[in-house]
Write a structure and sequence with these properties.
The longest helix has 24 residues. The chain is of the alpha+beta class. 42% of the residues lie in helices and 17% in strands. Strands 1-2-3-5-4 form a five-stranded antiparallel β-sheet. Strands 6-9 form a two-stranded antiparallel sheet. A two-stranded antiparallel sheet has the order 7-8. It contains nine helices and nine strands. It starts with 8 loop residues before the first helix and ends with a helix.
Length: 306
């Protein structure tokens, strides 16, 4: 990406907050957030992240900073969140290297679960304002009319392409989660292979801290148990691998979920899968998550008592 193509606000922001303007663009990615890997005029490599300011970013970055200070494998924020027009912006160190850990077997699931348990243990000691509203793919706690959280970019598309069973699965799972009334905690809600980097079986970096959420622990673990193997388009792990994830997670955390928590975990796994299947259909993508959902929904809902 040429320097001239950077957003107009970015060079001045870097000069004000990092002490130097961009001299080179290392990479640029845009999904939910805009992410710029930059080399500054003084030679430092940094990452600048910008996203719509919905009030979540300050809590997410503050929590990330606390974990980085403790030596948790994540990029260290270099600035707090500041405003740039309608955007919330911060910078963090560049933490390159590492590889994705592929696979969705029970053994791989247990490895991911061990890391997720470590992450949740660390976050349990972090006090920040809840990062609300929750990310849309885990926003089963929304108060909008209908099954799904309101999102114009999805709601304005032709809803007839979404199989009717997807909304039914989401509604049943959502009812189960909300009926449980479990207390909420801080957790990572986009715990996927594509957001993690490893050296062999040792984790090197956990990314995407914008995706922290405020949900029951069992729901966060359940969502991760279904999505951990996603290395690109969202996928749903096999049921036996989600089970291995949840068993390993409880073992590492040192406490067994109650019967209700186990049910909520399974409900969260299938709600997130339904959300992803809807998005997949609305965008006309190849049905990967949708096919897995159709194959697994009945069993996951049975385990959720939904």
């Amino acid at each position: 990406m040429p320097l001239d193509d950077l957003p107009d606000w970015l060079p001045a922001w870097c000069l004000d907050h990092l002490g130097g303007e961009p001299a080179a663009v290392l990479f640029q990615v845009q999904q939910v957030s805009m992410v710029f890997g930059l080399r500054l005029a003084g030679g430092a490599d940094v990452v600048v992240k910008a996203r719509a300011d919905d009030g979540r970013a300050s809590s997410c970055v503050a929590a990330q900073a606390r974990l980085a200070e403790r030596g948790f494998p994540c990029a260290r924020p270099l600035t707090p969140v500041t405003g740039a027009g309608s955007l919330a912006v911060h910078a963090e160190e560049l933490r390159p290297g590492g590889d994705m850990l592929p696979g969705d077997s029970p053994d791989v699931a247990a490895c991911y679960a061990e890391l997720f348990a470590r992450l949740m243990t660390e976050l349990a000691d972090v006090t920040v304002p809840p990062p609300l509203p929750n990310p849309p793919w885990v926003r089963w706690d929304h108060t909008d009319p209908g099954v799904w959280p309101a999102m114009d970019c999805l709601d304005n598309r032709d809803q007839s392409v979404v199989p009717s069973c997807v909304a039914e699965v989401a509604e049943r799972a959502r009812r189960r989660i909300l009926a449980a009334g479990l207390p909420c905690v801080l957790g990572h809600a986009d715990f996927e292979a594509q957001n993690l980097r490893w050296h062999g079986w040792q984790v090197w970096a956990v990314h995407d801290w914008d995706s922290l959420a405020w949900h029951p622990e069992a729901a966060l673990a359940g969502a991760a148990s279904g999505s951990f193997a996603s290395a690109g388009p969202p996928m749903l792990a096999p049921v036996e691998s989600s089970e291995a994830f949840l068993v390993a997670y409880q073992d590492i955390r040192g406490r067994l979920f109650t019967e209700v928590e186990v049910q909520v975990a399974w409900a969260a796994s299938v709600w997130m899968a339904a959300y992803n299947a809807r998005e997949e259909a609305l965008h006309g993508h190849t049905s990967v998550g949708g096919d897995a959902l159709r194959a697994q929904a009945a069993e996951r809902l049975r385990r959720a008592d939904a």
